[in-house]
Every structure is written in structure tokens, then in C-alpha cells.
Write a structure and sequence with these properties.
Organism: Polioptila caerulea (Blue-grey gnatcatcher)
Distance between the termini: 28 Å
Family: Belongs to the metallo-beta-lactamase superfamily. Glyoxalase II family.
Helix content: 25-40%
CATH architecture of the largest domain: 4-Layer Sandwich
Domain Metallo-beta-lactamase: 4-144
Radius of gyration: 19 Å
Strand content: 15-25%
Keywords: Hydrolase, Metal-binding, Zinc
Cofactor: Zn(2+)
Number of helices: 11
């Protein structure tokens, strides 16, 4: 959430050249900064699947493959959180490193994205047929650090699941030390992420459903209502404060 300036600092430190941006979806906390970067880097290519993405230059489609030097990218269309959500699966041929999935707000560590513009059917397809079939060592780089909260919900769903307990304890410690919990691996997610475990008996028992889509629908609705923090300020307003966007108004006092 540091915006373009933080990215420029990383690029400078790494000695990298910014040639392209892969945007998962149009929400401001994922695409904010595209226009500014496009102005700073003439000819910058901005890839995405939704016309609402700022500074978009290249519209991509499901299964399309892109190449950046040695890096290969497969575009995976996962509509639901938004109708134009695209995930990006990346690997390098002949590399010993595991491939990576940039999953935006579709698949999180221990959770999945809210169904803002889509259905449980769509999310079920996304998780079982599109993302769930990737190599199990794939590293999952999601768009937010909401791991602790996701796993607290996972523990409510499966109180006996030892993997959930272990991962939650680990995530809390990482949080306390201000360290990231991302990435995880796809193989791990299947062990503790309830949204990938819709065919497991304890998850079905929790939801009172057996049809996988209905289990998923019920899980998401329960997650949406899970211990909502009381009277918290609007998160967008808080971020606006963090980013100094209210500066012009506050100065007028």
C-alpha cells in the first residue's frame, strides 16, 4: 500500500527496469498508482482483464501467455471478487525455483476474496479448476496480509484441525514481529484453508451443507459476518490518512 514512491525505491535498490505492470483487478488498493507510473515511464505496458483498470494498455484473456526475459506468465481468469479479476502464474523454464501465483483478491493465505461481483459457482470454479490444479509447490502471493483473521475463522470452521492451529500460531508470531506471512504454498493451503476444503467432512458439518458450491456459499457468508470489529473507522478513510490524501483539507484549519 506504499504507492508508486515505494515501488520506485525498490526498483532503484534492485537495479531493475520497470517495463510492465500486471494488474489483478481494478480496485484502488491494487491499481492505484498505475497512471502515475505510466506518466513517469513513457511506453510502460499495463496488463489486465478489466477496462476499469487505470492506464490499461494491454487487455489479457484467460490462458494467454506473456514473456518477460526468462520469466513466463500465464494469465488465469478468476471472475467473482470482481467480474474482471485475473491471476498471474509465473515460472522460469529450467529454474529450480518453485513457480509463483499472484492471486490478487481471489485466493488468500487461509481464505478467499469476497464475492463482490460474482457468485459462489464462479469462486468454486476458480478455486477447484483454475487455481487448485496448479503445481502443489506453487508459491501463493496474495494481495493482502489478512492471514491471522482468516485462520481464526478457519479454526472456528475446523476446531480440531492441527494444521490450522500450527499455521495460526506461526502467523500470529510473524505479525508480532512485523514480518510477512505471504507467500504460502498451494499444497499447504489445501491443509488449512476452508475454502479449498469444501469436500472435507468437518467443513461440511460446520456449514450444514454437502454440495461443494453450497458449502462455499455458506462459508463465505459466515466469513463475512465473522466477528466484525466494532465501530472501526472506514478502512479507506484510514488509508487516505496514511497516504496523506487529506492533507489539502487539514491544512485549511
Amino acid at each position: 500500500a506504499g504507492g508508486p514512491l515505494q515501488l520506485l525505491e525498490i526498483i532503484r535498490k534492485e537495479g531493475a527496469v520497470l517495463r510492465a505492470i500486471l494488474t489483478t483487478h481494478h480496485h484502488w488498493d491494487h491499481a492505484r498508482g498505475n497512471e502515475e507510473l505510466a506518466q513517469l515511464f513513457p511506453g510502460l505496458r499495463v496488463f489486465g482483464a478489466d477496462e476499469r483498470i487505470g492506464a490499461l494498455t494491454h487487455k489479457v484473456t484467460h490462458g494467454q501467455e506473456l514473456t518477460f526475459g526468462a520469466i513466463r506468465v500465464r494469465c488465469l481468469f478468476t471472475p467473482c471478487h470482481t467480474s474482471g479479476h485475473m491471476c498471474y502464474f509465473m515460472w522460469e523454464d529450467d529454474s529450480p525455483d518453485a513457480p509463483a501465483l499472484f492471486s490478487g483478491d481471489t485466493l488468500f493465505v487461509g481464505g478467499c476474496g469476497q464475492f463482490f461481483e460474482g457468485t459462489a459457482e464462479q469462486m468454486h470454479t476458480n478455486l477447484t479448476q483454475i487455481l487448485g490444479t496448479l503445481p502443489e509447490d506453487t508459491k501463493i502471493f496474495c494481495g493482502h496480509e489478512c492471514t491471522v483473521r482468516n485462520l481464526k475463522f478457519a479454526l472456528k470452521v475446523e476446531p480440531e484441525n492441527e494444521m490450522v492451529k500450527e499455521k495460526l500460531a506461526w502467523a500470529k508470531q510473524r505479525d508480532d514481529e512485523d514480518l510477512p506471512t505471504v507467500p504460502s504454498t498451494l499444497q499447504e493451503e489445501f491443509l488449512y484453508n476452508p475454502f479449498l476444503r469444501v469436500t472435507e467432512e468437518p467443513v461440511q458439518r460446520f456449514t450444514g451443507r454437502t454440495d461443494p458450491v453450497e458449502v462455499l456459499r455458506t462459508l463465505r457468508s459466515q466469513r463475512d459476518n465473522f466477528k466484525k470489529p466494532k465501530e472501526r473507522p472506514n478502512p479507506q478513510a484510514m488509508l487516505a490518512f496514511d497516504w496523506g490524501l487529506f492533507g489539502p483539507f487539514l491544512d485549511k484549519k
